[in-house]
Amino acid sequence: MAILLENATVVTLNSSKPVLEAQQILIDGEIITQMGRKIHTSGIPIARRINCSQMIVMPGLVNAHCHLTEILQKSFRDNMRMEIWRTYRTRTEDLAKLTAEEIGMAAELACSEMLKNGVTAVVDHFSTRPGLTVKKMEAILGAFDKTGIRGMLVPSLRDQDSIRLATRSINRKSMAAQTSPEPWKEEVLTVLARLRKERSRSGIMLGPSSPMNCSDALLREVVKLAEQYDLGVHTHLLETRLQAWTAQKLYGKTVCAHLAEIGFLSSRVSGAHSIWLDDRDIDLMASSGASTVHNPASNLKLGSGIAPVAQLKTRGVNVALGTDGGDTSDSYSIFEQMRLAAYLSRVVAEDPENWITAADALRMGTINSAQAVPAWRGKIGEIKPGYSADLILLKPTLRLRPLRDVVHQLVFCEDGQSVHTVLVAGEIVVDGGRLTGIDENSLIRRVEPISRKMHRHYSRVKKVPDRSQKITHELYKKALAAKGLPVRFLS
Questions:
Q1: Considering Cα of 394, then 398, then 403, then 405, what sign does the dihedral take?
Q2: CATH at 134
Q3: Residue 48 forms beta bridges with which residues?
Q4: 160-196 as b/e, with b when 16 or more CB fall inside 10 Å?
Q5: Does residue 102 lie in a domain region?
Q6: What domain range includes position 163?
Q7: Which of 194, 212, 297, 448 would be a feasible disulfide site paired with 329, CB 3.0-4.6 Å?
Q8: Is residue 125 part of a domain?
Q9: Angle between helices 100-116 and 134-147 (to 10 degrees)
Q10: CA dist., res. 378 & res. 356, Å (int)
């Protein structure tokens, strides 16, 4: 049975005709089969006609990097660098000992927030403590299925601690002795086999936590498995100045140079944040076909820096967008990330010719983010026949009025309030602003006690002196001093 969208103002992402008026879109099953002013529908049983007059139809937004379960610690912290924030987060999780059921409910809530804000596909770099299990991963996959979002599960992998290595002044030759691997391969392959047997809309990628938190042996194993099973690879890449300094200390070169040397960089790879890249790193990313995922709100809140998005774009690197987690971006809105991405480019690029335009930002939040995930390339992110019907229908609210330039105003004015209807693979998952697969109020009631428990644990964690804060401050001093920058503010 088919769905017909009529009289639609369609955002095409085409540079010559970015917006088309009075369009019809035919969705047959999961796929867009026809689009145009007058399409042929005779003999096609149409289950639902949607009059899109006074509405905007655009591709579903794609969140190419986030952490779903961090919604349980939403806005817990402020005024912390990433390394210190992460310590508080993990210590809180250690005390909470979240069950698979609690993880699933948290993921459902985050996915629900995204769907209601027009995000139809999400990459979850999944990390929860203690340990990675099939049951926990299946809880995330269950949240994808219940909410109807297109999900990519990326279990976080690591077998060493870069900060610990840096503080011990360990060189590359002795790094292998410092590994403490957790079992992961059997669990990940078990989940992958189930997904492929069921022909699920969800997928799985391999997710080294960050290159410095993984031994070369683990990174090579990831590359081998990714090639064997045709999987994407997703990692945190140079999020902070300290990570860039640590990489130089561990490898004697930049992290991208090291990754290229061991055969890690390829078009399968996407690197979240990618802030502290130098010119050579950018060239290596471009020549390998690897993508970067810009997380502007998170980078600003944690004071991590501003990614060189204009340079990346100019040099031909695919730049996607992500929200990061609920305690760093504090929301799962890609509309917010698009606006920030455009604005921030104007702070670091002197020439307006190099600024990220509204059209650039819109592509980053849709087709570029889809391009960062191998399994989604050429399938989502655009509105065209043959692509999956991952669409959002917006009914312009006051924030979009008066409406003169659709592309500009979607990026600079919209915040998700206008999202009216959302389709994922031809299934209506938000209808008239209401989730169709989830009872939102019931879900909130079930999640609230879990978050309260987390907050109680965090209150306990804050009272215990954390030696890692002092170590982090000292390492930042060294990293800043190495660049000849003042360190007085860290004393």
A1: negative
A2: 3.20.20.140
A3: 3
A4: bebbebbeeebeeeebeeeeeeeebeebbeebbeebe
A5: yes
A6: 59-389
A7: 297
A8: yes
A9: 30
A10: 23
